[in-house]
């Protein structure tokens, strides 16, 4: 099916691909804007700050706030 085709072409499930895209967009916003972490999370489609922070830390190995402080 389409999900299998997508996985073969990208190496990821559609969900994982979209999550990674949203997290990279959030990282770019954290580094390039003065929006709050909460604003960035909501703008990038996360329903809660907690889910965003957990997902961000899993992907990048640091919290959104720590990334911004660097």
In brief:
The protein has 70 residues and is an all-alpha fold. It has helices at 2-10, 14-32, 37-43, 49-60, 64-69.
N-C termini distance: 43 Å
Please tell me how large the radius of gyration is. 13 Å
User: Any idea what the shape is?
Assistant: elongated
Please indicate the percent range of residues in DSSP E strands (runs of 2 or more). under 5%
**SSE sequence, one letter per element:** HHHHH
Strand tally, please? Answer: 0
CATH homologous group name: Homeodomain-like
Query: Mean pLDDT, rounded to whole units?
Result: 96
* CATH class category name: Mainly Alpha
- The share of residues in helices is over 70%
CATH fold type: Arc Repressor Mutant, subunit A
Low-pLDDT regions: none
Describe the structure.
With 70 residues, this protein is mostly helical. It has one domain (2-69): Homeodomain-like (Arc Repressor Mutant, subunit A). Helices cover 76% and strands 0% of the residues. The protein is built from five helices and no strands. The chain starts with a helix and ends with a helix. The mean pLDDT is 96.
Name a few traits of the molecule.
70 residues, mainly alpha, Arc Repressor Mutant, subunit A, elongated
Question: In terms of topology, how is this protein built?
Answer:
Elements: H1 2-10, H2 14-32, H3 37-43, H4 49-60, H5 64-69
Helix pairs in contact: 2-4
């Amino acid at each position: 099916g389409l999900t299998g085709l997508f996985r073969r072409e990208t190496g990821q499930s559609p969900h994982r691909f979209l999550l990674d895209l949203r997290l990279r967009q959030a990282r770019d916003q954290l580094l390039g804007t003065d929006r709050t972490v909460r604003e960035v999370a909501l703008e990038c489609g996360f329903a809660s700050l907690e889910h965003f922070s957990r997902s961000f830390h899993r992907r990048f190995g640091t919290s959104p706030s720590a990334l911004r402080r660097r």
